[in-house]
UniProtKB/TrEMBL annotation:
UniProt feature, compositional bias: Polar residues: 200-213
PANTHER family: BREFELDIN A-INHIBITED GUANINE NUCLEOTIDE-EXCHANGE PROTEIN 1, GUANYL-NUCLEOTIDE EXCHANGE FACTOR
Membrane topology: Peripheral membrane protein
Organism: Triticum turgidum subsp. durum
Residue stretches making up the SEC7 domain: 213-400
Example of a GO MF term: guanyl-nucleotide exchange factor activity
Segments passing through the bilayer: none
Descriptive protein name: SEC7 domain-containing protein
Any single GO BP term: regulation of ARF protein signal transduction
Family matches, as Pfam families: BIG2_C, Mon2_C, Sec7, Sec7-like_HDS, Sec7-like_HUS
Lineage: Eukaryota, Viridiplantae, Streptophyta, Embryophyta, Tracheophyta
Key words, A-Z: Cytoplasm, Guanine-nucleotide releasing factor, Membrane, Transport
């Protein structure tokens, strides 16, 4: 406590005596005194800066910055003293950090660090050409070297402090708060200096801060200064910006306070803004004036005080507004001073005019006191002001000029800075004359010293005056943002213009430190700028101009790459570009052949040349000069260019060649070992750095390879090297690396330069062979990612040579590394799939040869990995089936699909339900081993079967047929391996889509034309195979009965006879195969499905009727022919269209009737085959089907209008008419036969179904139709005793023909009636007798009807009458 008290007293003494002495002696020009002042100041800054924050803020600009910023006419000794002082300060890293934190980040303090850097920049740039200076060239060069050295020292200190903090940051707090009541341990800089005893006055209050709060303060200060700068150019925009950025409030009072209290504002601009006529500036001006207190102040002094804050604008209206408000405010503060504000307003104008007249040198005739009094008569409401008052006012103005704020016309660099104005230093600087010639000490006057001391006390009393010490390295980002651009300019200009070894060495060191700091602090823009500058100064792009400093720049680049490689990120591209150019020049100097020579000749020739080039080094250097690449290097180019200058034909002089050789010899200082060390060192880069390194290396490699005149492979070879070096990294990092390399190989492998593409793919093959030596665990995907470039290049490359090379590379890898391939199979099959679709026969056959080897010999390796691998294999084989070069290959591919199924079965890929026990299968296991049941085997079988299903839509008949056969053969041969759920899956995803048009063709197009003949043939074969398959595995697939039946009956639904015949045939095979296994409910399902299909076919007739509804047919062929001669073209076209429609309808009608008869025959055969399996319900469905068809036949025959049109059309077209009557007869005859058979075969079922009545109803219906045709209506009253006798007209030829056609059916009915039992006939005689009686009297076309009728009367009716 005693020590703290003593230190506070000691600090107070420093402030009271030492600082006052420094202030008084600051104007002395003696060098010894100045050096002593600087020495004392450095001591105070190093040890007591925390307690002397305000004093240092004043003395630093006064002693150091003012001398530093004087570039043209400084004192050499003083400036050297200041530069040496700055160098010592810059070596103390903590002092630098504290200066930036406490001054540049403080709104109320000067930007000392920024001004140091900018001052050093000005000095480093030297005297402007043509400017007047007192310096000799040697002195100027000395200043430039020292300033660059200071800048480099600043960066070195920042880097050292950063390294120190990053190492110990976890063990110390980020903020060292300066406390009022505590004394922290001293802060020691890097070199042991910079001790700060942190003495605090009692006025300080504790505060906390960190990098984020300092960032906010710094940002606030920068934005505020930006607003002030905008205000000084255009006041309105500046005020708007400050309001929007919330630096000032939106009210006029807030803006007025800002204008009144903020330093750095241009007084003229303040006056212009206050005089504006817009509403808001007027409110601001009123608030500005209302904030001033003129109470008790003399009028002249009030004007003097009023104009101290701004300069009157030049426009009269603005002056009027400003002075009018002043007068109003003065009268309000002093109500008894004048009669009205008008008096004050006029008097104010008079005072301003007097001040201008009295103190303007341009005015010759000065205004006298009497003139002034006379000018102001009557201004006080018609009265005169007292002469004594006006005389006193006159004397005040004449003797003491009213001085307004500084004139804005003064150049900006001549105006005192805002900070100097803030601290009151403008008067001090004007007072002190630093000319060397003056020996007399002028000293500061007591008034100014007192003024500064008052400012010290005022600032010390502020609670914000806290000295911060920060250890967070984030502050370096803000410091670099301030200093990087000036330092870049200083180092770059010095390097470019100066050849002095010391200066250039300091510049390169500065660049080196700058790259280090910006890299570690992740300042991408700044880091890239520094690296790019160093890279450009290597002059590797223009060797003819190279000097030793450029070689040193190359060394700096190598040093940056090795030491800061972990942080370079995108900047690696510039580094590697330099290395690439260096290697190129090295090879040119050695006389080695260029890479382009290897990339444009066969590989064998290039190897021979390489062997020959190992000798005669001396002759190579001579011959190399004739190399176009050497000539291009001599001519040089720009840094950003990848090739030589456009003027490639320009002649190269011997001097240029000699200069080139000498400069190449300079590069011998750097061995190729250092260059290779960078790539070997890549193993030590961290995870993010190695990825960035590889990205940059790939970019440079692409630039090299894509050169149209001189492609190079340096970076490509280095890519292979670093891939080998880093292949043992953890998988996560290696995956990121390979993603970059993969894109590179794809991009370059697809290059138009064939030699480059082949070389790249061969390099990729080397890497892949190396990588595949590592075994991959299951369910990983990295092998696939590694081999993906092969697949992408195979798909994208337009060069057949490259594609063939890819196939050969992949084939070699598969055959040599098959044991280790896991996820890589996907890329392998992708390559072979692309090869299968290639337009080169050699590529297709080469790929198929390897596929054959894989499937035959290495099939277990495919199935032991992911299930998608087998899917890819199947897709590949399917693609080979589409080969246009070899039908044998296509068929062999299908055969291999069958072989795959056999292999799956042999390896025990049995698809059992997971919730059921695995039962043994009747399969022969190889070598006596039991079959191993694997999980999820459905995913192996489904793609195989689905792929075959897609092949069924191929356009080639052999492929279609082979695919269908192989598909169903596989299912039939290996179906016992499948569970019910798997069967359900296969039926749903593979088999059913064959019949509903959902299958996609191998080329990806949907096939929806079911009516195509080739598609019909395929479906016909498929449906037959389906029925055979289903019958075989019915026990497992019983639930699919309905859908299978629907597929079969869908053929019956077809409008084509051949399809229906196929459907009926297959339906019969289905029912025959399942007859003994079907239950009653299953029979019902089948019959209902059959019935619905049959009913669906009946609607065709309605369409035919509708089609012919509006069709008109000519009566005779002759009239039709004559009509053709005279009818107009429209009518002729219409009649032709009608005949075409009629022809189509007739064909449609014939097919329809034929189809119905096929169905009828199928129904009858179904009954005959399975009658013992049918119950009453089943027979009811069958009889309903026949009844519907017979009713439909009657409907068809009753459409007389349609038949008339058909008759006319057929006669005109000379084709046969539809056999409608035959259709009706066959339908009824089959119906009656079935009823009669049922009545005979199963009497009990017949009684149950009342078959007898159904027979009678059908018979009566047939007889009525016959009688109608014969022109005899059945008698409605059979008991009439006196019937009326009518004349019977003979039948027409058409009726006779129809009657003749119906005769066979009537004869069938007669025989049926004659065969009925007596009781049955007796019961139905009342219904039959009237019809039989009418048959006796009607006309017949055949005597057979009469004979049959006689038999009925004789055998059936006669016995009943006799009884």
């Amino acid at each position: 406590m005693e020590l703290l008290t003593f230190m506070n007293v000691y600090l107070g003494a420093i402030k009271q005596y030492l600082c006052l002495s420094l202030l008084k002696n600051s104007a002395l020009s003696a060098m010894s005194i100045f050096q002593l002042l600087c020495s004392i100041f450095v001591g105070l800054l190093s040890r007591f800066r925390s307690g002397l924050k305000e004093e240092i803020g004043i003395f630093f600009p006064m002693l150091v910055l003012r001398v530093l910023e004087n570039v043209h006419q400084p004192s050499f000794l003083q400036k050297m003293t200041v530069l040496n002082l700055l160098e010592d300060i810059c070596k103390e890293s903590q002092v630098l950090i504290d200066i930036f934190v406490n001054y540049d980040c403080d709104v109320d303090a000067p930007n000392i660090f920024e001004r140091i850097v900018n001052g050093l920049l000005k000095t480093a740039l030297g005297v402007t050409p043509g400017a007047t200076t007192t310096l000799t060239p040697v002195q100027d060069q000395t200043f430039r070297t020292e300033s660059v050295k200071c800048l480099a020292t600043i960066l070195k200190s920042m880097g050292s402090w950063m390294d120190q903090q990053l190492r110990i940051g976890d063990f110390s707090p980020k903020i060292s708060e300066v406390s009022l009541n505590s004394l922290d341990s001293p802060n020691i800089g890097e070199d042991g200096n910079g001790i700060d005893y942190e003495l605090q006055s009692d006025s300080y209050s504790p505060d906390t801060s960190d990098a984020s709060s300092l960032e906010q303060r710094r940002a606030y200060k920068i934005e505020l200064q930006k607003g002030i700068s905008m205000f000084n150019r255009k006041p309105s925009k500046g005020i708007d910006f400050l309001i929007k950025s919330k630096k000032i409030g939106q009210s006029p009072e807030d803006v007025a306070s800002f204008l009144r209290n903020t330093a750095g504002l241009n007084a003229t601009m303040i006056g212009d803004y206050l005089g504006e006529r817009d509403e808001f500036p007027i409110k601001v001006m009123h608030a500005y004036v209302d904030a001033l207190n003129f109470e008790g102040i003399d009028f002249g002094e009030a004007i003097r005080y009023y104009l101290r804050g701004f300069r009157l604008p030049g426009e009269a209206q603005k002056i009027d507004r400003v002075m009018e408000k002043f007068a109003e405010r003065y009268c309000k503060c002093n109500p008894n001073s004048f009669t009205s504000a008008d008096t004050a307003y006029v008097l104010a104008y008079s005072v301003i005019m007097l001040n201008t007249d009295a103190h303007n040198m341009m005015v010759k005739d000065k205004m006298s006191r009497s003139d002034f009094i006379r000018n102001n008569r009557g201004i006080d409401d018609g009265k005169d002001l007292p002469e004594v008052y006006l005389s006193t006012l006159y004397d005040q103005i004449v003797k003491n000029e009213i001085k307004m704020s500084a004139d804005s016309s003064v150049p900006q660099n001549k105006q005192p800075s805002s900070v100097m104005k803030l601290l009151g230093l403008d008067n001090i600087i004007n007072l002190v004359n630093w000319k060397q010639a003056e020996d007399k000490a002028l000293g500061a006057n007591d008034l100014l010293i007192k003024n500064i001391q008052e400012k010290f006390k005022a600032k010390s009393a502020k609670s914000e005056s806290v000295f911060y010490i920060i250890t967070d390295t984030t502050i370096l980002r803000f410091m670099m943002e301030v200093c990087w651009a000036p330092m870049m300019a200083a180092f770059s200009m010095t390097l470019d213009q100066c050849d002095d070894k010391a200066a250039t060495s300091q510049c390169l060191q500065g660049f080196r430190y700058a790259v280090h700091v910006t890299s570690v602090m992740c300042m991408q823009t700044q880091r890239d700028a520094f690296v790019t500058s160093v890279a450009k100064f290597t002059y590797l792009h223009c060797v003819a101009d190279m000097k030793q400093k450029n070689v040193d720049a190359v060394k700096a680049i190598i040093s940056i790459a090795i030491e800061d490689g972990d942080y370079l990120q995108e900047a690696w591209e510039h580094v590697l570009t330099c290395l690439s150019r260096f290697e190129h020049l090295h090879l040119l100097g050695e006389g080695a052949p260029t890479d382009a020579s290897f990339l444009t000749v066969p590989l064998v020739d290039s190897e021979e040349k390489t062997q020959k080039s190992s000798t005669n080094t001396a002759s190579k250097r001579t011959n190399a000069l004739q190399n176009p690449a050497v000539m291009a290097a001599v001519r040089g180019g720009s840094y950003d260019s990848t090739t030589a200058k456009n003027n490639a034909s320009a002649l190269v002089t011997p001097d240029q060649i000699n200069n080139f050789i000498s400069n190449i010899n300079l590069l011998d200082q750097i061995g190729i070992f250092e260059l290779n060390h960078i790539f070997a060192h890549s193993q030590r880069l961290n995870s993010n750095a190695i990825v960035a390194f590889v990205e940059a290396l790939c970019k440079v490699a692409i630039t090299e390879l894509q050169s149209p005149t001189d492609p190079r492979i340096f970076c490509l070879t280095k890519i292979v090297e670093i891939a080998h070096y880093n292949m043992n990294r953890i998988r996560l990092v290696w995956s990121r690396i390979w993603k970059v390399l993969s894109d590179f190989f794809v991009s370059v492998g697809s290059s138009e330069n064939l030699s480059v593409a082949i070389f790249v793919m061969d390099s990729l093959r080397q890497l892949a062979m190396k990588f595949l030596e590592r075994e991959e665990l299951a369910n990983y995907n990295f092998q696939n990612e590694f081999l993906r470039p092969f697949a992408v290049v195979m798909q994208k490359s337009n060069a057949s040579e490259v594609r063939e090379l890819v196939v050969r590379c992949v084939s070699q890898m598969v055959l040599s590394r098959v044991n280790n391939i896991k996820s890589g199979w996907k890329s392998v099959f992708t390559v072979f799939t692309a090869a299968a679709a290639d337009d080169r026969k050699s590529i297709v056959l080469l790929a198929f040869e390897t596929m054959e080897k894989i499937v035959r010999d290495y099939f277990p390796y495919i199935t032991e990995t992911e299930t998608t691998t087998f899917t890819d294999c199947v897709k590949c084989l399917i693609t080979f089936t589409s080969s246009k070069f070899s039908s044998d290959a296509s068929l062999n591919a299908i055969a291999f699909l069958r072989f795959c199924a056999v292999k799956l079965a042999e390896e025990g890929f049995v698809c059992h339900d997971k919730d059921t026990d695995h039962q043994s299968n009747n399969l022969d296991s190889s070598e006596g081993n039991a079959i191993v049941h694997k999980d999820d085997h459905v995913y192996f079988w489904v793609p195989l079967l689905a792929g075959l299903a897609r092949l069924t839509t191929d356009t080639r008949p052999t492929i279609r047929k082979g695919a269908v056969e192989v598909l169903f053969d596989i299912l039939k041969d290996h179906g016992e391996l499948f569970s019910q759920s798997f069967w359900t899956n296969i039926f749903g995803s593979v088999i059913y889509p064959l019949f509903n048009g959902e299958i996609r063709t191998p080329n990806g197009q949907s096939d929806s034309t079911e009516d195509d003949s080739w598609n019909f043939e395929t479906k016909t074969v498929a449906v037959k195979c389906l029925v055979d398959l289903y019958v075989t595995f019915f026990d497992v697939m019983r639930p699919e009965l309905t859908r299978v039946t629907s597929v079969v009956t869908s053929f019956i639904r077809s409008a084509y006879r051949q399809s229906a015949i196929t459907g009926m045939s297959v339906f019969q095979r289905l029912t025959e195969g399942l007859a003994s296994k079907l239950s009653k409910d299953e029979w019902k399902e089948i019959l209902v499905c059959f019935k619905e299909a049959a009913a669906h076919t009946l609607v065709v007739f309605d369409k035919i009727v509708k089609m012919m509804q509006n069709i008109e047919i000519p009566e005779r062929n002759e009239s039709y022919s004559e009509a053709e001669k005279y009818s107009d073209p429209d009518i002729e076209d219409e009649e032709e269209a009608n005949m075409e429609t009629s022809s189509y309808a007739i064909v449609k009608m014939k097919n329809h009737m034929s189809l119905q008869l096929v169905i009828v025959q199928g129904i009858v055969k179904l009954y005959e085959t399975h009658r013992r399996s049918f119950c009453a319900e089943h027979m009811g469905i069958i009889l309903e089907m026949l009844s519907a068809i017979t009713s439909h036949a009657s409907e068809v025959s009753s459409e007389s209008a349609l038949h008339n049109k058909f008759h006319k059309a057929c006669s005109l077209l000379e084709i046969s008419e539809p056999a409608v009557i035959h259709f009706e007869n066959e339908s009824y005859q089959s119906y009656l036969k079935l009823l009669q058979a049922l009545l005979h075969d199963n009497p009990s079922l017949s009684r149950e179904m009342n078959i007898e009545s159904q027979i009678m109803l059908v018979s009566v219906k047939i007889l009525r139709k016959y009688l109608n045709c014969a022109g005899q209506e059945p008698s409605k009253d059979a008991s009439c005793k006196d019937p009326v006798v009518h004349w019977a007209l003979p039948l027409s030829a058409a009726k006779k023909e129809e009657l003749s056609a119906r005769t066979p059916l009537v004869l069938h009915v007669m025989r049926l009636l004659g065969g009925l039992e007596r009781e049955c006939f007796r019961r139905n005689l009342p219904l039959l007798f009237p019809l039989l009686a009418n048959l006796v009297r009607c006309e017949h076309s055949s005597r057979e009807v009469q004979v049959a009728l006689y038999d009925v009367f004789q055998s059936s009716i006669g016995p009943i009458i006799s009884v």
